[in-house]
Structures are given as structure tokens and as C-alpha cells.
Automatic annotation (TrEMBL):
Keyword Oxidoreductase included in the entry's annotation: no
Species of origin: Chimaeribacter coloradensis
Keywords: Membrane, Transmembrane, Transmembrane helix
Chain segments annotated as transmembrane: 18-37, 338-358, 364-386, 393-411, 431-451, 463-485, 524-544, 882-901, 907-931, 958-977, 983-1008
GO MF entries: xenobiotic transmembrane transporter activity
Domain of life: Bacteria
InterPro entries assigned: AcrB_DN_DC_subdom (IPR027463), Acrflvin-R (IPR001036)
GO cellular component term, pick one: plasma membrane
PANTHER family assigned to the protein according to its UniProt record, in alphabetical order: ACRB_ACRD_ACRF FAMILY PROTEIN, PTHR32063
Designated name of the protein: ACR family transporter
Length: 1020
């Protein structure tokens, strides 16, 4: 019956020409796929956030919240998959951030934003007059990996902007270019500054100037002349087009022509609300941020950009200099080449293990299997749309130690058969019969161990998804190679006869045989010692450090500055330039760029992007090396603490994985914003009591000064004035009103009328400001309103339509955010219990991100266990054997603790992935040994002989595959991202191999003896 079963290895040997042809095709396709795979630093993941913004000029923060923000929030809450809606409302402006749930399927994010945009369009008519349709930014995750900074000493802002826009237009022809954004370009406006008293003496009002200039510059139809044959357009010229033309204007009053320059001063300047400023190495600049289109090859795209920019530089005006301040292609090239080097190291190590343990010829068979499996894996990655990036390359290295397992088991089985005197063909056939399906079962179990990675519904799971896919493809490929190509390679490369085992293998077998005899003789002691070790490791796990994702190993540092609310951008720029003077003297940095009035643009996908605000700045400091970055971070932190007292500062490296920003964050939420502020202060005091916390700050600052104009409506009506008239006059006086736009070629420049600087600074005479009523009379403001100083909250924050203040902080160097949060847990619990109903404290920051990521893994564990148990049952067909194989998995935790605790390596998200995957590796070895024991029983061996023979026979492949996996992990143990997983798997496999070779035979003896006793009882 057995002879009639199809044997894939035998078929391969009998059809060598077909198999060799398929092999060549696989290698060719794999190579072509490898060279064409997209390259990137990190895998793409969906940032499930959109930002809605709306303006209502002149509205106070409370009015904005009640009439605009609340309406937007209420409408957005009807979206599917909503997790939270957060808003920041300032005078005349609101920004609402919509966050979808972490488990939202990526393909549902774009439809959700399309629905959000439609809802905002429908909401627009219901908002107050002057608000308009709220703008939805759903491209929040656009990553501008390439940034060019252009400095131009001696050139005006207008000239610099013209040059940068021309460069931007030329770069749009580069293949695979996506979005582009200009940085630091400044708008210009032509300001007409007037003296209200001077105009009044001339018998003019600001409205007269506005009317005259608007009518002069209006675009209205001037008709067309039709003849019998032609249509001739009539054009009227004389519109305002330049400042010189404007200076020649005259205003007619009572038949007299008055030059405009005698009424106002005319100056070209920046707008009242300035655009963010961009500096390169302390010099004012403009920038071009460039994102690559999806699916492009970053290395090729970067080279094409550089070639285009080099050609453009040759045509630039003298004095303009281009500096590449962000170069994603160079980062990707370094990352890919670094990982390729590590992959090569891993291949060499695995091959060395193969040659040392199996000998030259058998080692060559395993060596041949590696490129074949890699070629199949690259082809599978191309089909799955997976490129070469941090996760997929790391997965290849992890898989490398596993993918040779099947080939090693096949060749070891063939070698054992040859040592028994069988022919090569018979040895190959026997290897398939005895190992193919246990190997397949073990492979499927190992793949099942990675299911939580592939199906975790979270941003962290999406970030690591390619790990699951690459392992799935490579392990399935390794099984196909082991049963199809490796037997054929064995026939080609192994000697036809091999009469005895090698001497080294004999010594190893002898040593293990002695250990096995001891274990089987002292069965109860082995079980008790094993259980005690497991319990001890569980107890010692309390010293395991935890983290979400480690900090990036890139050389950048983010230096964030936040001045008090209400600070002008000019003051923020002054403080930033003060920092730049220190940076200019630093020896350990390569370059630095400053974003003033906003946070840095997203040049790196896992980045916590700051919103635009005049009181904020962010400096990107690039160190010369990773070592220099650590020293620079310490020096900058000390400098900021000592010299920059009037602002909240933070120096931090880039993050890996989904960004969290400040590592310590607590949200205080409730209905009354004043009470929320009180509770937030109490929470900040709790944080201040912990020695491992520094730089405590809150997202809502202290109330700011405000001038309150309280209109007496009775007096205002009697004087022929309204609140609207008064507000418009004040806005014209202090901020300015846009009269019209000057049309000059392809550019529109705002023409703004505003009171002079002297009058604006004279707040003491505000009450004497003259207001023109409907009859043309001038009414002092004091006649209809009182003017007082007051306090106003500059920013109102909300979360899910409740008042919100976030208290955030950093940890001291060397401390872990999760551990610090653990220290705070008791105090936070006490404080939470003192809050009245409707108020709450919620943990955020790194711990919240870690909890979301880890819970998404554990949510999928039942599916993982079901798949593992199902596969095990198909192979073992026995409840007791399935339980026995599954029981071995926890013993790997002994090695995990031994590896992580002494080295201080944290058990983070990636390490947890390794621990879960480790269980599949352990169960795989257990399945193969249990299957071997059952085969021996079926051949008629006794219980002890079956266990002993199986343990001795499987010990060599188990140790070989464990060594291959362990040593294959060594190169990535040095990596910041993969190090914790490598340590966990190395330690776990060492311990698990020892338990599999000692404890498992003992447990099998107990099981088989028990079954034998039950069988004897039934027979009696």
C-alpha cells in the first residue's frame, strides 16, 4: 500500500530534466523580481487621521466652539469606525482632528474620508455666515522624503519665491513624483497705512478710499463690438498692477484731485498673519518638499531628482544655493545595503553551521537550497506587492534560520539512510516518506505562530504585516524545496555510499545518549526541575522591561519649542535664532533646518507632526553619527533647560512604528473646562513627585490678556452704529482689510488698508478711536462702548465634545515610559477616584500605543491556537499527543527571560512577536519527535526503545536546525529594531531545544506507559 503512494522526491529524481528546468526558471524569475522590488526605509502603514479646519474671522474662542467646532464634531461623529474627535479652537480658527479606530481596515479609510468630506459640504450652509465650507485634509500621511532648501543672499522674498516655484514646476516632470509642497515661501501684501485723524481732517473716511480703489481695480465686462463679419472685444486698461502705478493714483474729493500718497503711506510687507518661516543652517530659505508616488522605487526616484536638480542649478541666478536637507533615497540605500550585508552575514553563518554539522557535500545541498528558497520568496513578495524595507528584510533574516530547517532534515534523513547502506534514490524516497508530512505540519505550525503579526488589526500590526507574509512565503517555499529540489541535489552531490557517521557526530551522539539515559532514569526529577525552572522564569519576568517600539537609529534629533500662547511668530523666530547660534558652534552635527511657526513637515512616516501655530518651532538637527546623536541630545537638553526658560522644549530622536510623541501623557476630560484645568494641575503635581519624569507641560496654557470692547447697544443705536460696524472698524484699524488684489502677470498681491504702526501701538487712545456712522459723522468709540483689559483662554481643547487638557512629560535618560507609568498607576488611581462623575483621567502616550498594539496581537491568539491545534491534530491524531506538543511551548519562556533580563533588553511589541512565533518553532520540533516515536511503535519497538531511538535519531536534526536558527539571528541581534526579537528567539530556542531533547522523551515515556497499561487493562 505504501509503495503506491505518490512520492514527490522520487518523482523529482525520475524527472530530473523537468525539475532542473523549473529550478532555473525559479532562479531567473527570483533574480528579476529582486532587482525590481521597490526599496524603502519602512513599510507603509495607514495613518487613520484627518484634519478639518474652518475659519470665522473675528469670532472669540467660545463663539467658535459653540457655533462652528461643535457642529463639525457632531457631524463627524456619525462616521463609521470613529475612535476619537479632538479639536483645538483659537480666535477665528478651529482645527478638528478625526481619528479612526486602530482596527479600521486600511481599505475603509479612504471611503471614510470621502464620506467626511461630503458631510462637511452638507454642513456648510448650516454654519454662521462668513465661515464657508470646512476644509478636510485627508492626506495627513503624505511623506515628503526629499527636501531641498534654497538660500538666496541678497534676494527679496518675492525673487526667492519666484525661483523656487520655477524649480517646483520643473521637478514635476520627474517620473514617479507625487505631491510637492513649498516651505517658507512668504506672501507679500501692499499695505496702505493711514492716520485716522489725518483722514478726518481731510474730510475722508477709510470707506472712501476702499470704494475708490475697488472701483478702479474692478474686473467688469466692457462689451464687444460686432460688425457684419467680426466680433471685436473691448478692453479697458488702467487697473492697478504695480506699486509705482498705485503711488500715482489720485482720490477726487469735492472736485479736487488729492494724491493717494498724501493720504496713506504705501509699503510692501509680509501679511498681518505671517506664513511659517524655513531656515537652513541658520539662514533664511525656501524649501521644496517632495513625496514619491505610491509604488515607485525610492533609489531610482532619488537619482532622477538629483539629476534634474543638478541640471536646474546650472540655470539658477548667482548667489542662490541648493542644500539637500532630507534625502530619503540615501537613507533607503544605506538601510537596504546594511540589511543586505546583515543578510549575507546570516547566510554565511547558516552555511557554516551546515558544513560543520553535515560535512562538505551535505552542507552543499543545504547551501543550494538557500538561494532557491530566496528566489521563490522574492517572486512571492513581488506578487504580494511587498518591497524591500526594514520589516521585510528583517523577516528574510528571521526566516533564513528557519528555511534551512526542512532542507537539513531531508539531507540528514538521507545521510542516515546512506549510513544504513541504502542507495541514494532509496534514501531520498525514505526521507520523503518519513519526514515530508511531519515537516509540513511543523511548517504550518510555525506559520501559525506568526498569524498574530499578519492579522493584528492595529497600526502596529499593519506596520509589521510584511513580516508575516515573508515568513509565510519563505517557509512554504522551504518545504517545497526540501521535498522537491533538495533530494535531487542530494542525489547529485552526496556520495553513493556512506558506511559510518562522522567522528564529531559520533561524539555528540554519545554525549546526548548519556544525557538521555540519565533523563529517562530520573524521569520525575527531570519533570520537577523543568517545572521549577518554568515557575522561576515566570517569577523573574517581573524584571522584564517593556516598551512599544524603540527609538529610531537614524541620526536626526527633533528639537521642539513651544512658547506661551499668544506669542508672535517674530518672537518665536527670535528664540529659534538664539538656538541656531548655539547649533552653529556644535561640532557633532552635519546640518540643521528650522521650521518656525509650525512643526516639521512629515519627512519620515512614523513621525508625530505638530500643527501650525505662531508660538511653535521645530529644529531638525542631523548628527554626524549615531554616537554623536546621543551626546548631542544630552548637550542640547542641558542647554535648553538652562537658557530657554520661557518655553516648553523637548529634544527627541525619531520614532519607529506608529508615533506617540511625548512618552508620558494623561488626558483629563470633563464638561467644565475650568474644573478640568484644576484637575490637570493636580495631575501635574503627581507627575512632579516622580524623580524619573521631567519637562512636565500641559497642552492648554494660562489665560492671555485681551482687550474687551463692551458695546452699549442703546447708545450705539442712538449714534447710528452697530456691533458689526464697530468690529469692522476695529479690524480695519488693527489687522487691516483687503481692498482688492493687484494683478501682475500670473501673481495676485493683496492690497490692504490699515492704520499706521504708531496708531496701532497706542492702545491707551483706543477709546478715542473715531467711528464713522451711516450719516458720515465721526463718533468716538468711548461714546458707545467701554474698553477694558481682561483675560481670555487662547485655546480651547476638546475630545469627543468634552473639555480636554493633556498633561504630558518626558522621562529622564535611561528610564522606560512603561515602567514610569507603572510607578504612577497607584497615584493616578487615587486621583481618579476623587473626581466627580463626568470627569476622567485616561492614560495616553507610549503606554496607550503599546496597549493597543499588544491587545491587537492577543485578540488574534485564539485563531492562532485554533490553527496550531488543528494542524497538530491532523498530524498526531491524538488529544494526548497534541496536548503534549503544546505543553512544550511555554518552556521556551525560560530562555526568553534568561536572555532578556540580564541584558536589559525590553520585551516590546517586536519581541512579543518573536515569543509568539517561538512557540511555533518549539511545537514543530515536538511534532517531529512525537511522530518519530509513533512510527517506531508501529514498527513493533517497545516503549523505551521507541523513545530512545526517536530521541537519538531526531536529536541531530533538532540541534542542527536550532543552531541554524540561533546563529542566523546573531547578525540582527545588533539591530535596534530587531535586537529584542533576536534575543528572545535565541534564548527561547536554546532553552526549548534542551527541554525538547530531555523533558519531551520523559513525558513521552509517561504517556506511552500509561497507554500501555490501559491497553493491558482493556485486554484483560
Amino acid at each position: 500500500m505504501q509503495k503506491n503512494k505518490f512520492n514527490l522526491s522520487t518523482w523529482a529524481i525520475e524527472h530530473q530534466q523537468i525539475v532542473s528546468f523549473v529550478l532555473l526558471m525559479i532562479m531567473s524569475i527570483g533574480y528579476l523580481c529582486y532587482v525590481s522590488l521597490p526599496r524603502d526605509e519602512d513599510p507603509a502603514f495607514t495613518i487613520k487621521t484627518a484634519v478639518i479646519s474652518a475659519q470665522w474671522n473675528g469670532a472669540t474662542p467660545p463663539d467658535m466652539v459653540n457655533h462652528v467646532t461643535d457642529q463639525i464634531e457632531k457631524t463627524a461623529q456619525a462616521l463609521p469606525f470613529i475612535d476619537s474627535i479632538e479639536s483645538q479652537t483659537r480666535r477665528g480658527f478651529t482645527e478638528v482632528t478625526v481619528n479612526l479606530k486602530d482596527e479600521t481596515p486600511p481599505d475603509q479609510v479612504k471611503p471614510a474620508w470621502a464620506l467626511l468630506r461630503k458631510k462637511m459640504h452638507d454642513l456648510a450652509p448650516q454654519l454662521p455666515e462668513g465661515v464657508g465650507e470646512p476644509a478636510v485634509n485627508d492626506e495627513y500621511d503624505a511623506t515628503y522624503g526629499t527636501i531641498y532648501g534654497i538660500t538666496a543672499e541678497g534676494y527679496s522674498d518675492r525673487q526667492l519665491r519666484d525661483s523656487v516655484e520655477a524649480i517646483q514646476k520643473a521637478l514635476l516632470t520627474v517620473p514617479d513624483i507625487g505631491r510637492t509642497q513649498l516651505l517658507g515661501v512668504q506672501d507679500e501684501q501692499i499695505t496702505l497705512s493711514f492716520s485716522p485723524r489725518h483722514l478726518a481732517l481731510m474730510g475722508l473716511s477709510p470707506e472712501t478710499l476702499v470704494s475708490a480703489l475697488r472701483s478702479q481695480n474692478a474686473v467688469t465686462p466692457s462689451g464687444e463690438l460686432r460688425t457684419d463679419k467680426d466680433i471685436i472685444d473691448i478692453s479697458v486698461t488702467g487697473a492697478l498692477s504695480t506699486v509705482d502705478r498705485l503711488k500715482d493714483e489720485v482720490i477726487t474729493l469735492n472736485g479736487k484731485a488729492i494724491p493717494l500718497t498724501s493720504l496713506v503711506s504705501i509699503v510692501t510687507e509680509a501679511p498681518h498673519s505671517p506664513k511659517p518661516v524655513f531656515h537652513v543652517n541658520g539662514t533664511r530659505a525656501a524649501g521644496i518638499a517632495i513625496a514619491m508616488a505610491p509604488g515607485g522605487n525610492m533609489l531610482e526616484f532619488g537619482n532622477a531628482l538629483d539629476d534634474k536638480m543638478a541640471a536646474l542649478q546650472a540655470t539658477m541666478p548667482v548667489g542662490m544655493k541648493v542644500t539637500k536637507v532630507a534625502d530619503q533615497s540615501a537613507v533607503v540605500e544605506k538601510a537596504v545595503s546594511g540589511f543586505t550585508h546583515v543578510l549575507t552575514e546570516a547566510i554565511v553563518i547558516v552555511l557554516a553551521v551546515s558544513f560543520v554539522s553535515l560535512g562538505l557535500r551535505a552542507g552543499l545541498v543545504v547551501a543550494v537550497a538557500i538561494p532557491v528558497v530566496l528566489a521563490m520568496t522574492f517572486a512571492g513578495m513581488a506578487l504580494a506587492g511587498i518591497g524591500l524595507q526594514r520589516i521585510s528584510l528583517g523577516a528574510l533574516i528571521i526566516a533564513l534560520g528557519l528555511l534551512v530547517d526542512d532542507a537539513m532534515i531531508t539531507i540528514e534523513s538521507m545521510v542516515s539512510s546512506l549510513e544504513r547502506g541504502e542507495t541514494l534514490k532509496k534514501a531520498a524516497s525514505s526521507a520523503f516518506t518519513t519526514t515530508a508530512f511531519p515537516m509540513l505540519t511543523g511548517t504550518l505550525v510555525m506559520i501559525a505562530g506568526f498569524i498574530p503579526v499578519g492579522f493584528a488589526r492595529s497600526a502596529a500590526g499593519e506596520y509589521c504585516y510584511s513580516l508575516f507574509m515573508v515568513v509565510l512565503i519563505s517557509l512554504l517555499s522551504s518545504w517545497v524545496v526540501a521535498v522537491l529540489f533538495s533530494p535531487l541535489s542530494g542525489v547529485w552531490l552526496l556520495p553513493k555510499k556512506r558506511s559510518h557517521p562522522q567522528h564529531t557526530q559520533g561524539r555528540l551522539a554519545t554525549a546526548y545518549a548519556a544525557l538521555l539515559r540519565f533523563s529517562l532514569t530520573h524521569k520525575l526529577s527531570v519533570v520537577l526541575c523543568s517545572c521549577m525552572l518554568l515557575l522561576a522564569s515566570i517569577w523573574a519576568s517581573q524584571w522584564l522591561k517593556t516598551e512599544f517600539f524603540p527609538a529610531s537609529d537614524r541620526p536626526e534629533l527633533l528639537v521642539s519649542l513651544a512658547l506661551p500662547e499668544g506669542t508672535t511668530q517674530q518672537e518665536t523666530q527670535r528664540v529659534t535664532e538664539k538656538l541656531e547660534t548655539f547649533l552653529a558652534k556644535e561640532q557633532g552635527l552635519a546640518r540643521y533646518t528650522s521650521y518656525i511657526g509650525t512643526g516639521a513637515i512629515r519627512f519620515y512616516l512614523p513621525m508625530d507632526v505638530q500643527s501650525e501655530a505662531e508660538n511653535k518651532a521645530q529644529v531638525i538637527v542631523v548628527a554626524k553619527s549615531l554616537e554623536a546623536r546621543f551626546a548631542l541630545q544630552e548637550r542640547l537638553t542641558t542647554l535648553l533647560n538652562e537658557r530657554f526658560h520661557n518655553c516648553v522644549t523637548r529634544v527627541s530622536p525619531l520614532e519607529m512604528g506608529p508615533p506617540v510623541g511625548w512618552p508620558i501623557k494623561y488626558r483629563v476630560e470633563g464638561q467644565d473646562s475650568k474644573k478640568v484645568g484644576i484637575y490637570a494641575q493636580q495631575l501635574a503635581q503627581v507627575l512632579a513627585g516622580n524623580n524619573h519624569i521631567r519637562d512636565i507641560n500641559m497642552t492648554s496654557g494660562e489665560p492671555q490678556r485681551a482687550i474687551v470692547v463692551d458695546v452699549d447697544q442703546t447708545k450705539a443705536r442712538a449714534a447710528g452704529l452697530t456691533t458689526e460696524n464697530i468690529s469692522q472698524a476695529l479690524n480695519l484699524y488693527y489687522s487691516g482689510n483687503e481692498i482688492t488684489k493687484i494683478r501682475n502677470h500670473d501673481r495676485l498681491t493683496a492690497l490692504v488698508l490699515r492704520a499706521g504702526q504708531e496708531e496701532q501701538q497706542d492702545t491707551m487712545n483706543l477709546a478715542g478711536m473715531l467711528l464713522r456712522n451711516s450719516t458720515g459723522a465721526n463718533i468716538p468709540l468711548a461714546q458707545v462702548a467701554s474698553v477694558t483689559w481682561g483675560l481670555e483662554s487662547p485655546v480651547i481643547e476638546r475630545r469627543n465634545r468634552a473639555a480636554l487638557i493633556t498633561v504630558q512629560a518626558d522621562v529622564t535618560p535611561g528610564e522606560n515610559a512603561d515602567e514610569v507609568n507603572g510607578e504612577l498607576a497607584e497615584a493616578m488611581g487615587v486621583l481618579s477616584r476623587t473626581l466627580p462623575p463626568g470627569y476622567m483621567i485616561a492614560e495616553s502616550g507610549a503606554s496607550e500605543g503599546s496597549d493597543k498594539g499588544n491587545s491587537s496581537l492577543f485578540d488574534v491568539l485564539p485563531v492562532t491556537l485554533a490553527c496550531m491545534l488543528g494542524v497538530m491534530m491532523l498530524q498526531l491524531q491524538s488529544y494526548s499527543r497534541v496536548v503534549l506538543a503544546a505543553m512544550m511551548a511555554p518552556f521556551g519562556f525560560v530562555g526568553v527571560v534568561i536572555a532578556l533580563v540580564p541584558t536589559g533588553t525590553p520585551l516590546g511589541f517586536v519581541a512579543i512577536l518573536g515569543v509568539i512565533a517561538l512557540s511555533g518553532m518549539i511545537i514543530r520540533n515536538a511534532i517531529i519527535m512525537i511522530s518519530e516515536v509513533d512510527n517506531n511503535i508501529r514498527r513493533g519497538m517497545g516503549v523505551e526503545e521507541s523513545v530512545t531511538h526517536a530521541a537519538l535519531h531526531r536529536s541531530r536534526p533538532i540541534m542542527l536546525t536550532a543552531c541554524a536558527a540561533i546563529f542566523g539571528m546573531v547578525p540582527i541581534a545588533r539591530q535596534v529594531f530587531w535586537g529584542p526579537m533576536a534575543y528572545a528567539i535565541i534564548g527561547g530556542l536554546v532553552a526549548a531545544t534542551a527541554f525538547t531533547l530531555t523533558l519531551l522523551p520523559v513525558l513521552m515515556m509517561f504517556l506511552l506507559n500509561s497507554e500501555e497499561k490501559r491497553a493491558r487493562k482493556r485486554s484483560c
